[in-house]
Every structure is written in structure tokens, then in C-alpha cells.
Design goal:
With 202 residues, this protein is mainly α. 74% of the residues lie in helices and 0% in strands. The chain is elongated and about 60 Å long.
């Protein structure tokens, strides 16, 4: 009976220790999860013919823009005197100004807006609002990563190369959004790759 009791106590101790080890390993697994790449920014729609569809698209764009604004606001501002962030800040400020004017004008004319103005409102709000917000979000997140790894020169080089605000001279799906995906999003994802590699080495 005595031997049975000892065996039971040992078995319980092993079971408890195994359970503790499993729980302790959970945070480690979470910590090493890779940061996902940013998906390409979608093109705005160009096959729209009727006013009701344009109004729906404008409402969707406004909702997306407001969501992005809230997300951007949760991240710290980058230092405007470093790299070429001053150019990015100028572009972001202009994007917000243009978007606010578009929203005000749309609200004033929404009840009797024609197709031509609805088309311009949708396309401009998508570019200057949504796409500019995506770029600002990437710039701020890239700066967070730079601060996390301040000695990594590759992150610095990609930031200086990418977030300069020069995209303000472009517009349209085939020029602005396409080049944004091929250059800005692609370079941002290179930063993600560097950060994931550095995290895996910790």
C-alpha cells in the first residue's frame, strides 16, 4: 500500500510538471509569430455608370478612410527632421486637406450630385484619402520598427528610399496606385522581412 501511494504521488508530480511546461511555452510561440506582409492596395473601380453605385462607393470609401485615420492616430508620429519624413508629412497633410474639402463638397451637393462629380469625388477621395492614409500608416509603422532596431542600417535605407512624399505628382490606377504597390508597399514588406529575421534571432 505504501509503495502504491508513493507511485501515485510521483505520477501526479510528473503530470503537474508537464502541464506547467506546456503553459510556459505558449508565450514563446506567440512571441515568434511572423509579422504578415502588407497586401497590395486595391485599385478604385472604373466600370461604374450610375449615380447610385457611385454613392455607395463613396460611402464605403469614407468609412474606410475614417478607419484608416483612427489606425494612423494610434501610432506615434515620425521625426520630421530625419531621413525624408518632412516630404511624407507634407504629402499626408495635403492628402487630409484635399479629403476634407472633398467630403465637405460632397455633403453639400449629395442630394443632387451628377455622375461626373460623383466619379471625381470617389476617385479623388480614394486616392488622396485612402491610399495616402495607407502610405502614412506604413511610414509610421516603419519608424516603430526602426526604433526597435536602431542599429539596423538596412531599415534606415529603406525608410529614406521609400517615404519621401514624391508620390504626390502621380494619380490614377495605372500610375499612382500601381507604383505605390510596386515601390512603397514592396519596400515596406522588405522592412517586414528584416524585422521578422531579427525577431527570429532573438
Amino acid at each position: 500500500m505504501k509503495h502504491y501511494f508513493i507511485f501515485t504521488v510521483i505520477a501526479l508530480a510528473i503530470s503537474f510538471a508537464t502541464g506547467c511546461k506546456k503553459d510556459d511555452s505558449t508565450p514563446e510561440t506567440t512571441k515568434k509569430e511572423a509579422i504578415p506582409h502588407k497586401a497590395n492596395i486595391a485599385y478604385y473601380k472604373t466600370d461604374v455608370k450610375d449615380i447610385s453605385t457611385y454613392k455607395e462607393l463613396i460611402d464605403q470609401t469614407i468609412a474606410e478612410y475614417n478607419t484608416l485615420l483612427a489606425t494612423v492616430g494610434k501610432l506615434p508620429q515620425y521625426p520630421k527632421d530625419k531621413y525624408k519624413y518632412a516630404g511624407q508629412d507634407y504629402a499626408w497633410t495635403e492628402g487630409k486637406r484635399i479629403s476634407n474639402e472633398l467630403l465637405q463638397n460632397y455633403n453639400n451637393k449629395k442630394s443632387n450630385i451628377d455622375v461626373a462629380l460623383a466619379k471625381k469625388t470617389y476617385e479623388d477621395l480614394y486616392q488622396y484619402g485612402v491610399v495616402y492614409a495607407h502610405i502614412e500608416l506604413m511610414a509610421r509603422q516603419a519608424e516603430v520598427y526602426r526604433k526597435e532596431y536602431p542599429t539596423n542600417t538596412e531599415i534606415e535605407k529603406l525608410i529614406e528610399k521609400t517615404f519621401d512624399g514624391l508620390y504626390t505628382t502621380q494619380e490614377g490606377n495605372e500610375h499612382f496606385i500601381k507604383s505605390t504597390n510596386e515601390e512603397i508597399v514592396a519596400n515596406y514588406n522588405k522592412i517586414i522581412d528584416i524585422v521578422n529575421k531579427l525577431k527570429s534571432q532573438q
